[in-house]
Specification:
It comes from Paenibacillus marchantiophytorum. With about 300 residues, the protein is an all-alpha fold. It has 15 helices and no strands. It is globular, with a radius of gyration of 25 Å.
Length: about 300
Amino acid sequence: MLSLKRKTFKEVVFDQFNNLLMLAICFATLYPIWYVLVNSFNEGQDAMRGGIYWWPRMFSIDSYLAVFANDGIMLAMGITVAKTFVGTVIHVFFTAMVAYAFSRRELIGRTVYMIIGTVTMFFSGGLIPYYLLIRDIGMLDSFWVYIIPAMFSFFDLIIFLSFFREIPDALEEAAKIDGANDFKIFYQIILPVSMPVVATIALFHGVYQWNDYFTGMIFINKSDLQPIQTYLYRVVAQSSSNQMVAATSGNVFKTVSSQSVKLATMVVTTMPIVIAYPFLQKYFVKGFMIGSIKG
């Protein structure tokens, strides 16, 4: 039988300290989310008195009714869903196609392209030149400003490239013997066997598209094209939630406040990705482990 080594007093103390530290970090991370959730489900006028920390004092969903009664937030949610889906599909397909080309040893100038791409990961032209570029190509107040500038990422290319290099060359050689060209090999062989990395990059970019508020804030002036995160930013930063409260009539208007509507809006905009993340975490971990040295 294997004998288990007993921990020393210092090791026990160290383990307990680590456990307490991790519990404190988890509490500091999760409690703000819980606080927003609890206060969003409390009656708005009552919540203004304060003292709500762990559970709603007067449970109410009127703040959420005020949020969903507003046409602006539902339109913004539709824009976010559309740009997340379209942007993710295009980003994954285009980045994978470029990465496959980079994985070919016969690509002329591959080293130069890699150096140029690596430099762009650390240096950029800045916000003003970027804004002027977007303006000159006519993408201001356009849905495509969410899609085209984000359709390629050199960081994601490196992840794709690491995975493609692990695919046996025999698969491509057999396909070429059967008369398949590079495009057919990519569509029918490389992509099907690369579903783990495809799913990983799709999750990376999908989370980015869902959480991105900066693009809508800088390049979009039309209210019918702003995503939900930009809408949330303007609600919080500009106190436009007062307009949402004013647009709600009847008994709901009497029980909500601008603060409770803000909190409910935060929950509505962030909860979908918060709920989805634990189920998708394994793909994020797998994405970072792709290309690592196998033991």
